[in-house]
Write a structure and sequence with these properties.
Blueprint lengths: L81 E8 L6 H11 L4 E4 L1 H6 L4 H7 L2 E4 L12 H17 L8 E2 L8 H9 L4 E2 L4 E2 L9 H10 L6 E5 L9 H16 L2 E3 L1 E2 L5 E2 L18 E3 L18 E3 L6
Parallel strand pairs: 1-2, 1-7, 1-8, 2-3, 4-5, 6-7, 11-12
Antiparallel strand pairs: 9-10
Helix pairs in contact: 1-7, 4-5, 6-7
The chain binds zinc ion (ZN).
The site of zinc ion (ZN) has 6 residues, from loops.
Length: 324
C-alpha cells in the first residue's frame, strides 16, 4: 500500500478558510495529483461567526499551555481561540464504549455520524449517546459511495438509517448527514434535499486513522496541526471496512488535551452544520453500554489491514454491501 501521507491534511484547504471539505476523494486516500475540488455548498458551512469578546488576546503558541478551557475563562468569556467540534464516523463499533468513557471523563460533547446497520446491530448506543449530551446524525445504512447509487437506493440508505435511529429511540437534533467518503454529487444532494437533508456536514481536519497502521501519535499530530476556529475534526473509532480504531481512541485523551491547550473549546453543530459553542458535557447517570451483538463490517480493505494484517476486535461479522 502507499504510505500514509505524513501530513494528510495538506491536500485539503486550510481550515482557516472555514470551508469543510466534501469531495470525491476519500479521506483515507493518499493525496495524488492536484488537490481535489471542493464542493462545499454555500450556506451549509458558514464561516465561524466572530463573537465579540472571544477575540484571542494573544496568538496560541503550539506547545504552550492555556488555562482557558471549554468551560470558559475566569470572566466567562469562553475559550481564547474559539470552538471546534469532534466528530466520529462509522460507529458504533467495539471501540465506541472506550470513546464514550473518555468523552465522559473529559466532559467533551461530540457528534456521532453513525452507520445504520451498526445502529441496528447494537441499538443500545444511539439513544444513550443523545442522553449523554452528544449529537447523533446520519452516515447512511451501509456506507456506500452515493455517486454509484440510483436515487432510490440513496433514499433507502438514508431512510433505513432514520428508521434504525428511531427504533433505537433517538431523535436527531436536525436532519444532518455526512456522506461516506465525503463524496456526494449534485444529483445526490438533490435526493438528500428531497428527504429534508439540506445539511451535509464536511470535514476540515482528519488523520489517516482508517489505516490500522497509523499510530496514535500520528493521529494526534494530524488533528492538532489543523486546528482553526470553527474546524470540524474527524476521527474513526472503528472504520467500517478496516480493523482500525484502537489508535484513534488511544490518541483521544491527548487530542482533547492538545485542543484545549491551544485555546479551543469543544462545541457542537447547528442545523446549518456550523460549529457552535457548547458547555462541558453533563453526562447522564447511566453506565456506558457495552457492545452486545457482532459489529457489522464491510469486507476489509486489504491495504488497510496493517502489517501484519489485523482483524477487527470481536465480536464482529463481515457483511456484503447490498450494492456490490
Ligand atoms: Zn464513513
Amino acid at each position: 500500500m502507499p504510505s500514509p501521507s505524513p501530513s494528510p491534511t495538506s491536500a485539503f484547504p486550510s481550515p482557516a478558510t472555514h470551508r469543510s471539505a466534501l469531495s470525491a476523494t476519500a479521506p483515507n486516500s493518499p493525496p495524488s495529483g492536484p488537490p481535489p475540488s471542493f464542493a462545499a455548498t454555500p450556506g451549509t458551512t458558514p464561516p465561524f461567526p466572530a463573537t465579540p469578546g472571544t477575540t484571542p488576546p494573544f496568538p496560541a503558541t503550539p506547545g504552550t499551555t492555556s488555562s482557558v478551557f471549554a468551560s470558559g475563562g475566569p470572566d466567562g468569556s469562553g475559550p481564547s481561540n474559539g470552538w471546534v467540534v469532534l466528530t466520529f464516523d462509522d460507529g458504533p463499533s467495539s471501540f465506541r464504549p472506550r470513546t464514550l468513557e473518555v468523552l465522559r471523563r473529559e466532559t467533551v460533547p461530540a457528534v456521532f455520524f453513525d452507520v445504520g446497520m451498526r445502529v441496528a446491530a447494537n441499538p443500545q448506543f444511539a439513544a444513550f449517546q443523545a442522553r449523554e449530551g452528544h449529537q447523533v446524525l446520519n452516515h447512511t445504512f451501509t456506507h456506500p459511495r452515493l455517486a454509484t447509487l440510483t436515487p432510490e437506493a440513496i433514499r433507502r440508505e438514508i431512510i433505513d438509517t432514520d428508521e434504525a435511529l428511531r427504533a433505537a429511540g433517538v431523535r436527531m437534533p436536525f436532519r444532518g448527514m455526512r456522506p461516506p467518503f465525503l463524496a456526494v454529487d449534485d444529483a445526490g444532494r438533490d435526493v438528500l434535499a428531497g428527504l429534508g437533508y439540506r445539511t451535509i456536514v464536511g470535514v476540515d481536519v482528519f488523520a489517516a486513522d482508517p489505516d490500522a497502521a497509523t499510530t496514535p501519535e500520528q493521529i494526534r499530530d494530524s488533528l492538532l496541526a489543523g486546528l482553526a476556529p470553527g474546524a470540524i475534526l474527524l476521527l474513526h473509532d472503528g472504520n467500517v471496512d478496516t480493523p482500525s480504531g484502537r489508535a484513534a481512541v488511544t490518541a483521544l485523551p491527548e487530542i482533547i488535551r492538545g485542543v484545549r491547550e491551544h485555546g479551543y473549546g469543544f462545541g457542537l453543530l447547528d442545523e446549518h452544520g456550523a460549529v457552535v459553542p457548547a458547555g462541558p458535557l453533563q453526562p447522564c447517570a447511566e453506565p456506558i453500554p457495552p457492545i452486545v451483538n457482532p459489529v457489522p463490517y464491510l469486507p476489509l480493505v486489504e491495504q488497510f489491514r496493517g502489517d501484519p494484517p489485523q482483524d477487527p476486535p470481536p465480536p464482529y461479522v463481515i457483511v456484503e454491501s447490498p450494492h456490490s
